């Protein structure tokens, strides 16, 4: 009898495969980074074929490291970077263009043009999303309009598209030889093409964007047996769970009740609050999205605050400025100073997401004096994450009417003790880190496990959750408000930079 469940975690900067046991503990894992491609300012691309190669490599390595057979796994779940868009040839399996990443801003002019005819919120009532560079629809449209003769091939059904989950499922289940073309409701809800009420592609929106319906994957639930893997390493294993990365983290944090929320600190930062079985439309700049749908059970929805650049700012300080040698060095450098020295860093490299949705904002460092040094810039970079999270928490409180009394956190940055303490201080509530911080992969494993009976129900899943560390606020109210006031001033300086 299979004792483990496996999860592919295909993220913005790397691909991982993690094996979990029934207690939700990590048994084995492997990870490989892939190239970040920047053809022009504001453009961000990935090589989808490289992502596929790295994904298969980490699967093989993780299984080998655990000295297990693939039959020791009950099923496979998949979680993925959302909105990142791939178009590929159905017959050859080759992408027709690099994947356009969620951070990419090349369609800013299209956002402005569509917004002229009906405003930035013209599709919000149906899709829960404002017009922005972030989502998949305009990325698909750009590829169709910029790759020669592609539109004719799309209309003939020769090229298909999807988010990264669709590409991986198609490859894993046979590719050109019968590969399944599907996506789950959480990823579909990030395209700006799905009606939140019907959970189907909306014909009117497809027409507006000029996207042939035959390109798109079938929309399925987040937890069901879709088919079996044909890839040699996973031969015959059920592919049984798919969740966009942030929804997967919500499931991994066992936020199954209305009002429960989590915040994931990764390349960007994403806070989700479960709002139950009815979508709540935001009035404060948040997104309405599908949280998950398990089999034929009712769909759960969420409010989401999306922040484009958090961990990516640390990588930028490492790779572009050479300020640190490794991402983990940021905390040590930031602790060389007592405070930010009056320096504020607004990382609007891809514009500003929630709660502002300003594609024309750009990054600024404000408050520089001769006193400022490398430590102050490092500290300002970490504090930028916490300030942005506070803005999202405030918006979520306004929209939901629920005051958060604790913040559950996960993702790569939660190992940073300085950041977590400052986050608690600036929010004035406790911050709690779970024992298993890899909640994104864990959520995908839970979805797959629920589909095949590896886990009985969500109560069993919730019972696995355990606390690792808790931070309590220590900052006095006057200092908290003063720091936040200057952050707000700095944010305003980033507005309307591009024309």
Number of strands: 23
- Spatial shape: globular
Query: Count of helical segments?
Result: 16
Strand order of the largest sheet: 17-18-16-15-21-22-23
> What is the first-to-last residue Cα distance?
61 Å
Assign a percent range to the helix content: 25-40%
Biggest sheet character: 7 strands, mixed
Low-confidence stretches: none
Oligomer: single chain
Radius of gyration: 22 Å
> In terms of structural class, how would the helical and strand content be classed?
alpha+beta
Question: Into which percentage range does the β-strand content fall?
Answer: 15-25%
Average pLDDT for all residues: 93
Folded structure, characterized:
The chain has 499 residues and is an alpha+beta fold. α9 packs across α14 (439-451). The chain has helices spanning 48-65, 108-116, 124-127, 137-146, 150-155, 164-172, 185-188, 203-209, 245-252, 311-319, 329-334, 374-400, 417-427, 439-451, 458-463, 477-494, and strands spanning 4-10, 14-20, 26-33, 45-46, 73-80, 85-89, 99-100, 159-163, 182-184, 194-195, 200-201, 218-220, 223-228, 238-244, 261-265, 269-276, 287-292, 300-307, 344-346, 364-366, 407-410, 431-434, 467-471. The strands form seven sheets. The chain has a seven-stranded mixed β-sheet. β15 (261-265) and β16 (269-276) form a beta hairpin.
